[in-house]
Amino acid sequence: MTHVPSTTHALVFQGPGQAPAIEELGLEPPGPGEVRVRMVASGVCHSDLHMVDGDWERPAGVVMGHEGTAIVEELGSGVGAGAETGVEPGARAPGLGVGDLVVLAWTAPCGACPACGRGEAWLCAAPLGADHRLAPELARLHRPDGTPVGAYSGIGTFATHQVVAAGAAITIDPRTPPEVAALIGCAASTGVGAVRNTAAVRPADSVVVLGLGGVGLSALMAAVAAGASPIIGVDLEPSKRELALELGATRSVEPDSALRVVRVVRELTGGGADHVLECIGRTSTAELALDLARPGGTITLVGMTPQGERAGVDVYRFVEDGKRLLGSNYGSSVPARDFPVIAADVLAGRLPLGRLVEERIGLEDVVGALDAMRRRQGLRRVVVF
Ligand code: NAD
Ligand code: ZN
Q1: What is the pLDDT of residue 91?
Q2: pLDDT for position 4
Q3: Residue 112 near residue 25, CB atoms below 8 Å
Q4: What is the per-residue pLDDT for 5?
Q5: CA-187 nearest atom, ligand 1
Q6: How many other CB atoms are found less than 10 A from the CB of residue 226?
Q7: Does the pTM exceed 0.85?
Q8: Best of 195, 237, 279 to mutate for ligand 1, by most ligand atoms within 8 A of CB?
Q9: Ligand index nearest the alpha carbon of residue 107
């Protein structure tokens, strides 16, 4: 019989501007519609940095991390083959079994709200494990004094073990390398999905990707796989521009001045790109993105600014040029549909997402990884448990 741990080592958010800290927490067994997982790998995403830097309002006392892959260790009631009762429709996950390699979804659709009814899982109004599972009846983690501790977006992947909604655990091909599987939980789905689902890039479309981090390079790889051309990558960091070229970009551009970027893009695309994807999260580059699209072209905003910031639009030009502006949340992904496809694309060599893994680190190295990200140094650092 396998040892069933009743504790987890986890990186807990202590509030904005403070370093997150590793704590040992008690872990309850999975309830109805839930599973306990052993985490295998978890990537550090810029959204973690937004949280720590106080760009976004998030509650303290929550296990951080939302880009992870895990092995299922224990099924709660109502989960698995033949189990159909007692849990919400989205939480049944009848195919799930002990030992499965799963990618954890930070929006696990309820399956019952109007958005889920429209097939728009990423806009689910009542995702499973909502509000970071901080409510006492939802929390499965506790400090030694009994205080409930939440799990970011219901999954809190910077933890050795976790209890999550079964509907958040998406089975993928077990041959997928764990560090890469982790990225499917956020950066890869966000970038690949922005190209495939939100923007719906077609072969021979011209594409500009602003920001060549985990999300932007995932988008760039999907654009290459889609047969887009030309593909232009823009980033401040020379090493990232270099990698973009290796991955199949036609050209990479240093954004030393907005005017120069506009000139280069217009030259290469004959007047502006069919698609521009902003994968940085700055109002200035969102505004630049509007100028880089051709008349009738599509701008897809993927990067996220601090809450409440607004960008300016030259409304007259935007309307006259008939451009289209889209927001892309989680790559407009339906996790159960899209995660296994991305894993298959990795295994078939169509999406070389392994190139994004900069370094394998321990849980104690996440704070340093966030600092490196703040300085724009390197790509994905992935905690391997
Ligand atoms: P990252 O830090 O890995 O990448 C950002 C890249 O932008 C870096 O390569 C950096 O060098 C570059 N950059 C920064 N300032 C720049 C500038 N002025 N001009 C050109 N390049 C610049 O971050 P990431 O993890 O890839 O995330 C990117 C953004 O996407 C973040 O805002 C993150 O919160 C957001 N995000 C959105 C979703 C979603 O659902 N829409 C999901 C995940 C992440
Ligand atoms: Zn993320």
Answers
A1: 58
A2: 57
A3: no
A4: 55
A5: 43
A6: 21
A7: yes
A8: 279
A9: 1
Strand 357-361 with 324-327, pairing: unpaired
Chain mean position to CA 137: 27
Give the tokens for residue 220. Answer: 């760039």
Neighbours of 284 (CB within 10 A): 13
Q: Say which amino acid occupies 47.
A: S
The reported pLDDT for the residue numbered 1 is: 42
Is 261 a pocket residue for ligand 1 (Cβ < 6 Å)? no
CA-derived radius of gyration, the chain: 21
Q: Split the chain (385 residues) into runs of 10 and give each run's mean pLDDT.
A: 73 97 97 96 97 96 98 95 59 81 97 96 92 92 96 98 97 97 98 98 98 98 98 98 98 94 97 98 98 98 98 97 98 97 98 97 98 96 98
Residue 20: C-alpha distances to residues 51, 60, 111, 368 (Å)? 10, 9, 33, 11
Probe ligand 1: pick from 42, 51, 215, max atoms within 8 Å of CB? 215
Degrees to nearest 5, angle at CA 137 with 150 and 135: 45
Q: What was the pLDDT predicted at 90?
A: 57
HSE (CB half, 13 Å, CA atoms) of 197?
26
Query: How high is the pLDDT of residue 156?
Result: 98
| 203: β partners | none
Minimal CA–CA distance to 381: which of 49, 25, 13, 18? 49
Rounded to whole angstroms, how far apart are CA atoms 271 and 36?
A: 53
Task: Write down the pLDDT at residue 83.
Answer: 59
CA dihedral over 122, 197, 72, 364, signed as positive or negative: negative
Is the distance from CB of 108 to CB of 62 less than 8 angstroms?
Answer: no
Ligand 1 touching residue 374 (CB < 6 A): no
Q: What is the pLDDT of residue 6?
A: 87
Q: Is the minimum distance from the CB of 303 to ligand 1 under 6 angstroms?
A: yes
How close is the Cα of 82 to the center of ligand 2, in Å? 33
H/E run at residue 290: helix 283-292
| 302 SS3 class | coil
> Is 381 close to ligand 1, i.e. is its CB under 6 Å away?
no
